[in-house]
């Protein structure tokens, strides 16, 4: 436990501290001065008590704080109900603050604050500050509540089988969605703020004893080093903590699905949730983890394994198919059976461009189509798809600008690309495809091999938070167990251990007792 | 989860050695063997395997005596500063020549089989640049790549052999032991030189975490490579017969031309095997090139191994362009393996091991 406490200990605020003073007016003015010209801040001062001698004030940001809550549970209690309090005047005078704190304000979360700057921060996060007369503290009352998008199905990573909840833009809702899936006190959620001006809340989620301490330390250290004015989306954090910025590959997985985050945490990985975005980050990530979909584990293993294999083939196609087409047509027609080679040559006869230009044009058109489709509203987007895909393709073939085979190649490649569960990985493959196409145009098959060789080398050097990107391939000590969840997804009862490349202390996933129920013949051996 | 880029396991060492040993030689090996000993080629292969496994044992014994040290360091302790440096410089030259020959041969083969109209220079430069990129990455990525690529190359080549099984005719080996024994022995060095690359243990052992497993893994690696050679020679001769084998420059590649899978989508298997062979030769060259840059950086005690590798590129390119044609390249290759190969694969390890045993014995009394 000491490790986590050490790692996440609060640092002293380096700003100049403005202490809260006993004088009501001074405190009120100090806050008002800092927040000058902020017209969305509401100041409300009022008198309290039977003789109306106590001067109180509440300050909150309109729109961020829950107005109903303030009205009904703070103002009403303080202004009206407090008069009915039947209390000894003497004790009341001595203990006025305790009474208010413990007996009057009917809100769940209260905190005393001694620094005006902190008070301002708190106001801007949506809490309400209550200033009491002649007290050297101000009271923070938790009133966060702004209009937010409700939990809905994520727009990416849709599954057929599995929960259709997705993250929203509110951090607290997101952590709750994860907590609902992990009712273990060892699920730790450590929260801090990043961004000098934006002060964005960032939560680090991990399961103690399963998560690797080295990775955890690396996450915390890298997050601590971020000194930026604003974090608008988790992409900012991703780019500022990733291992290698020059790599085309995403080294951090992002997901909109709480079940994906929970599953990753159970594997011993670490989740980073950033306020104001529905995309959570998962570290460390490997290329295999980026090719997995949560659904793989929900479906039965035959289907999931087959889909996995299909996905790996799709990735290979997405990366190399157009370049292979270029290499075969322009350098090695002998690779194909004679009939097919003749047919390919026949279709290409009227095409005025070399294969590379042809392929490049079509691929570029496809990328254009994709980009245009995303920007447009959904109904028009599908129109663009029809116009671009069908009409343009058909017309280009009829005009003899591209060969029909090329259209097939491009269409197949596009389909293969979108079979990737991770959009960012697919995007990097799309980019690398063009490089391989250029290499194929210059050096044929040899060029493709050179390209893939250098690519493999790059992936071998890549690490994500100390974990090799190509794990579990090519680990110094390979274990067969890690391959149960790569190309295939073996039945759950055979996956008794967590993946070993993360080196965590608690490694048992499934108990031997449960695993033993399943016999190799396929029946359950239950004694009754 | 090592952060330093300089630790591999002994299993990884075995992979890097195997993939380095299998390179150019395997393609011409059936021809050279049949030219010398006719149908008894397989016995020479077996004899070669035995000798090389013993050599592997000797070299690993030597390097396990000096854990975390490469040959440049323990050469200095054993031979003295001057002789050690001369030996290391020779090793450097050995690797440089080795790389140059690999590059040239690769260019020739690609020009013959894959890119008929592309100038040799373009092929060689693109090849060298690719290799340098990987060499600069250091030992860990290289070891990981061997680990990934070795099974891929092995499985794809083995799969390509399967359809041939029906057409193999093992009577080609039949008049057994008609060759004079002396000829068999004379052919042995030829076989041993197919295992060039093994001498890289002398350098790579410095990176190995579990030193005590080196001998086991390296011997296995040499033996397994020998098995691959054995299968290649057997299949090639059984497929072509003795006369035909001697008429081809690279019979190890030509056999894949003869494969015909009825009803398959792919007609020309050879090109796919060639693709996996390119990967194998790339890895060989990376290993040897890396050996050269590593030796140099150790001699001049500079940590800039990657930068030295870049500096060496023009030299290697120039050396690779020296032979006038394929035949002369083959002659150079013979010369090279006869002298430098013998020296560093056989003589140096044995002498050094002998000296280390000698010094160990005297060491007790001499440690003043």
Number of strands of chain B: 0
**Gyration radius of chain B, in Å:** 21 Å
Task: Give, in order, the helices and strands of chain B.
Answer: HHHHHHHHHHHHHHH
Annotated CATH topology of chain B? Amino acid/polyamine transporter I
Spatial sequence of strands, sheet with the most strands of chain A: 1-2-4-5-3
Strand element count of chain A? 12
Instruction: Give the helix/strand class of chain A.
Output: alpha+beta
- CATH architectural type of chain B: Up-down Bundle
What fraction, in percent, of the residue positions of chain A are helical?
40-55%
Task: Name the overall outline of chain A.
Answer: elongated
* Biggest pleated-sheet summary of chain A: 5 strands, antiparallel
Query: What characteristic shape of chain B results from the CA principal axes?
Result: globular
Low-confidence stretches of chain B: 363-368
What's the assembly state of these chains?
heterodimer
Greatest interface (CB-CB under 8 A), with counts per chain: A-B, 32 and 41 residues
Q: β content of chain A, as a range?
A: 5-15%
User: Which class do the helix and strand fractions of chain B yield?
Assistant: mainly alpha
- The first-level CATH class of chain B is given as Mainly Alpha
């Amino acid at each position: 436990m000491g490790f986590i406490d050490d790692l996440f200990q609060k640092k002293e605020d380096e700003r100049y501290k403005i202490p809260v003073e006993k004088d009501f007016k001074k405190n009120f003015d100090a806050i008002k001065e800092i927040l000058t010209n902020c017209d969305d801040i509401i100041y409300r001062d009022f008198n309290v008590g039977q003789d109306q001698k106590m001067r109180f004030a509440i300050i909150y940001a309109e729109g961020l704080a829950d107005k109903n809550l303030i009205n009904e549970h703070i103002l009403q209690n303080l202004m009206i109900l407090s008069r009915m309090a039947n209390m000894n005047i003497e004790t009341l005078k001595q203990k006025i603050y305790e009474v208010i704190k413990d007996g009057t304000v009917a809100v769940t979360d209260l905190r005393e604050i001694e620094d005006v700057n902190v008070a301002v921060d708190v106001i801007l996060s949506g809490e309400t500050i209550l200033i009491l007369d002649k007290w050297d503290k101000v009271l923070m009352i938790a009133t966060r509540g702004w209009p937010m998008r409700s939990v809905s199905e994520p727009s990416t990573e849709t599954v057929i089988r599995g929960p259709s909840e997705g993250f929203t833009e509110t951090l607290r809702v997101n952590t709750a969605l994860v907590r609902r899936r992990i009712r273990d006190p060892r699920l730790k959620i450590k929260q801090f703020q990043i961004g000098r001006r934006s002060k964005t809340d960032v939560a680090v989620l991990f399961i103690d004893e399963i998560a690797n301490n080295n990775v955890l330390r690396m996450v915390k250290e890298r997050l601590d080093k971020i000194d930026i004015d604003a974090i608008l989306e988790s992409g900012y954090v991703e780019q500022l903590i990733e291992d290698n910025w020059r790599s085309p590959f995403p080294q951090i997985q992002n997901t909109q699905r709480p079940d994906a985050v929970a599953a990753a945490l159970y594997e011993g990985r670490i989740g980073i949730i950033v306020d104001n975005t529905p995309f959570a980050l998962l570290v460390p990530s490997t290329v295999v983890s980026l090719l997995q979909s949560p659904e793989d584990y929900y479906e039965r293993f035959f289907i999931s394994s087959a889909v996995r294999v299909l996905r790996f083939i799709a990735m290979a196609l997405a990366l190399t198919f157009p370049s292979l087409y270029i290499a075969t047509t322009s350098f090695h027609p002998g690779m194909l059976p004679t009939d097919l080679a003749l047919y390919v040559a026949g279709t290409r006869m009227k095409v005025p461009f070399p294969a590379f230009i042809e392929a490049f044009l079509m691929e570029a058109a496809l990328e254009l189509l994709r980009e245009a489709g995303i920007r447009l509203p959904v109904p028009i987007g599908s129109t663009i798809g029809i116009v671009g895909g069908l009409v343009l393709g058909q017309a280009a073939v009829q005009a003899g600008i591209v060969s029909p085979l090329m259209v097939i190649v491009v269409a197949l490649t596009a389909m293969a690309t979108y079979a990737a569960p991770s959009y960012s990985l697919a995007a990097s493959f799309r980019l690398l495809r063009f490089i391989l196409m250029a290499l194929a145009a210059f050096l044929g098959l040899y060029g493709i091999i050179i390209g893939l060789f250098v690519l493999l080398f790059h992936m071998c050097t890549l690490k994500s938070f100390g974990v090799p990107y190509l794990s579990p391939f090519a680990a110094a000590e390979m274990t067969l167990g890690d391959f149960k969840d790569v190309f295939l997804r073996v039945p759950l009862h055979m996956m008794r251990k967590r993946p070993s490349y993360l080196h965590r202390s608690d490694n048992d996933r499934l108990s031997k007792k449960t695993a033993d129920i399943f016999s190799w013949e396929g029946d359950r051996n239950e004694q009754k | 989860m090592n952060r330093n880029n300089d630790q591999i396991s002994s299993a990884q060492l075995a992979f890097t050695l195997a993939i380095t040993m299998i390179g150019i030689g395997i393609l011409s090996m059936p021809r050279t063997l049949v030219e010398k000993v006719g149908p008894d080629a397989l016995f020479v292969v077996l004899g070669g395997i035995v000798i090389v496994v013993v050599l592997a044992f000797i070299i690993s014994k030597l390097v396990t005596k000096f854990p975390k040290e490469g040959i440049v360091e323990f050469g200095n302790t054993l031979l003295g500063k001057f002789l050690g440096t001369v030996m290391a410089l020779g090793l450097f030259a050995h690797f440089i020549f080795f790389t140059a020959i690999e590059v040239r041969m690769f260019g020739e083969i690609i020009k013959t089989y894959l890119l008929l109209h592309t100038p040799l220079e373009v092929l060689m430069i693109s090849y060298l640049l690719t290799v340098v990129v990987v060499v600069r990455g250091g030992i860990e990525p290289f070891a990981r790549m061997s680990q990934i690529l070795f099974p891929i190359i092995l499985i794809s080549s083995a799969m390509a052999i399967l359809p041939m099984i029906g057409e193999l005719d093992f009577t080609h080996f039949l008049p057994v032991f008609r060759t004079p024994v002396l000829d068999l022995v004379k052919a042995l060095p030829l076989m041993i030189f197919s295992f060039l690359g093994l001498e890289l243990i002398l350098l790579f052992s410095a990176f190995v975490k579990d030193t005590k497993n080196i001998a086991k893994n390296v011997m296995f690696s040499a033996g397994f490579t020998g098995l691959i050679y054995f299968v290649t020679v057997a299949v090639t001769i059984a497929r072509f017969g003795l006369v035909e084998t001697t008429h081809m420059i690279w019979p190890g590649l030509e056999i894949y031309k003869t494969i015909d899978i009825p009803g398959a989508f792919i007609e020309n298997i050879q090109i796919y095997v060639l693709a996996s062979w390119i990967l194998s030769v790339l890895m060989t060259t990376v290993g040897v090139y890396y050996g050269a840059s590593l030796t140099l950086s150790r001699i001049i005690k500079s940590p800039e191994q990657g930068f030295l590798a870049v500096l060496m590129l023009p030299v290697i390119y120039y050396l690779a362009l020296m032979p006038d044609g394929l035949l002369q390249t083959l002659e150079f290759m013979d010369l090279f393996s006869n002298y430098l190969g013998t020296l560093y694969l056989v003589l140096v390890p044995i002498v050094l091991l002998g000296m280390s045993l000698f010094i160990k014995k005297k060491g007790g009394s001499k440690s003043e």
